[in-house]
Amino acid sequence: MSVRVGVLGATGAVGQRCIQLLDGHPEFELAAVTASEDSAGSSYSEAAKWRVDAPIPDAVADLTVRATDPAEVPDDVDLLFSSLPSGVASEVEPDFAEEGYVLSSNSSNDRMADDVPLVIPEINPGHLDLLEVQRDERGWDGAVVKNPNCSTITMVPTLSALDQFGLERVHVSTLQAVSGAGYSGVSSMEIIDNVIPHIGGEEEKMETESRKLLGSFDGAELSRHDAEVSASCNRVPTIDGHLENVWAELDADPSEAEIEAAFRAVESLDLPSSPDQLIEVFEDPSRPQPRLDRTLGGGMSVAAGGVQTTPAGIQYNCLAHNTIRGAAGAAVLNGELLQSEGWI
Ligand code: NAP
Predict the structure, then answer these.
(1) Strand-pair category, 222-223 with 216-217
(2) Using one digit for the tens of pLDDT, what is the confidence trace for 141-179?
(3) Ligand 1 pocket: which residues have CB below 6 Å?
(4) Is the pTM higher than 0.90?
(5) Known catalytic residues?
(6) Could you list the residue range(s) of the whole structural domain that residue 96 is in?
């Protein structure tokens, strides 16, 4: 039987991707969409300035957008994908969880809270068991699970592969697409013919979220990985796809071929949104490129290339689609994991 799901913040950049990815989903049936009070009461097709490169699914176009309030969402909806601005999410997500809804959330609030699982299903699925602690501490019937920031999720699968060689220190410089800032995030006058060498809060998110994702959970407490991570984040005039240049210092001294083999060996899962290959490795050092490679695995794969040993450590480039693997697809995959692990 399919699970009835809803999308909070359904009219935004991430919400629209969620709607697209849920269209025809084998296990989830979309039953409710919410947005701000400005959109509530309108049909979805009127409220959403649709910008995804596929038509609005017929079944969604005529849905009435609801206010983002637990009282407005039907009780038989079990799973909510949240793509709200973090300030809004920090106020309403606990209300939904208290009312018994399970949330798979993109928003950055509470990602680093000790009782909130931050999950990439292929990398740290066991962290989901932190929900026992969350329910005990907060008294919720529902639950909140987070997926990481879009720039963090691009890099962490590769770091996880490198951990077997003793991951000690990571430096990363990003080239992040404009869709990562949401539809009203960066004006065209700011970004055309330009690069903005700062994205507020992003560097800290990469530094802290990576260590949480790579940390271990002993059934009661989550410890952070002790690798040092430093990030420099840049906004560039691509539409979708974050490209990142990574330098990793390792305890061991693997060859370039061993690094590439370790990337290829990271296993994908058997969930409906899983790509066949989690990390696609390119031999051609001019790949991956955002325009060419962001839709690998339906936008759910990470691409890596340019692996080389340098005096500053292993260097390589990686890329992921920021609104699919980096946001909506990550939340849907976490929803699939929640269902397969019996949390819904
Ligand atoms: P966005 O395009 O600005 O969309 C925001 C959504 O939230 C819209 O549906 C909007 O509805 C709704 N909303 C705004 N204010 C609200 C309020 N007071 N009450 C209820 N709903 C409200 O933002 P986005 O880029 O999709 O990002 C959504 C979240 O995902 C953010 O927390 C962001 O940090 C995170 N995220 C984004 C990306 C990315 O690549 N874009 C990646 C990872 C995580 P209206 O249309 O009615 O205003």
Answers:
(1) antiparallel
(2) 999 999 999 999 999 999 999 999 999 999 999 999 999
(3) 9-15, 35-36, 38-39, 68, 83-86, 88, 106-108, 149-150, 179-180, 182-184, 322-323, 326-327
(4) yes
(5) 150, 242
(6) 3-148+327-340
